[in-house]
């Protein structure tokens, strides 16, 4: 079943291919969902979290956790909303540093998977190339 978001942006920031079959890329995206890493930044510890949602009924996005295995229920094309959040961890509280939201469309092209990325808005410190690096890193 195709999972398409009818309001997917018409202007694409980046178009690239991942040299993996569609089902493998779906599995990589599912593994990447709800992951986080902590690194030392200039103001202290920075927690970087990845939250991924998939298109539902062409009008909204829903959690990946609510679906049965993704690679068994999705075919041909899938649209995702990828939210990359950065939070500064201090002894007293957690302060949001930045939030980057991207729309990602993956299309089955046989032995490769074609990916289209569009950033929502202009805020945040990441761009489509950063998302490509994250996705390719998760699929290797």
Q: Write down the overall geometry.
A: globular
Mean pLDDT: 89
Radius of gyration equals: 15 Å
According to DSSP, the number of beta strands is 7
Number of separate helices? 3
The span between the termini is: 26 Å
Largest sheet: 7 strands, antiparallel
* Percentage of residues assigned to helices: 10-25%
Note the run of SSEs as H and E. Answer: EHEEEHEEEH
Structural class designation:
alpha+beta
Low-confidence stretches: none
Percentage of residues in strands: over 45%
Oligomer: single chain
Number of domains: 1
Summarize this, please?
The protein has 140 residues and is of the alpha+beta class. Helices cover 19% and strands 47% of the residues. The protein contains 3 helices and 7 strands, in the order βαβββαβββα.
In words, what does this structure look like?
With 140 residues, the protein is of the alpha+beta class. The protein has one domain. The protein has three helices and seven strands, in the order βαβββαβββα. The chain has helices at residues 22-32, 70-73, 128-138, and strands spanning 14-18, 35-41, 44-56, 60-63, 77-89, 94-109, 112-119. The longest helix has 11 residues, at 22-32.
Provide the fold topology.
Elements: E1 14-18, H1 22-32, E2 35-41, E3 44-56, E4 60-63, H2 70-73, E5 77-89, E6 94-109, E7 112-119, H3 128-138
Antiparallel strand pairs: 1-7, 2-3, 3-4, 3-5, 5-6, 6-7
């Amino acid at each position: 079943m195709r999972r398409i978001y009818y309001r997917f942006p018409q202007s694409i920031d980046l178009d690239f291919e991942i040299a993996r079959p569609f089902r493998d890329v779906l599995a990589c995206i599912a593994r990447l969902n709800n992951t986080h890493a902590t690194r030392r930044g200039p103001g202290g510890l920075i927690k970087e979290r990845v939250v991924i949602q998939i298109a539902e009924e062409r009008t909204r996005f829903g959690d990946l956790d609510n679906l049965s295995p993704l690679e068994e229920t999705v075919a041909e094309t899938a649209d995702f909303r990828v939210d990359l959040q950065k939070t500064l961890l201090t002894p007293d509280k957690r302060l949001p540093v930045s939030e980057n939201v991207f729309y990602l469309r993956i299309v089955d092209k046989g032995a490769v998977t074609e990916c289209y990325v569009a950033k929502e808005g202009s805020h945040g410190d990441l761009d489509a190339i950063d998302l490509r690096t994250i996705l390719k890193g998760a699929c290797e």
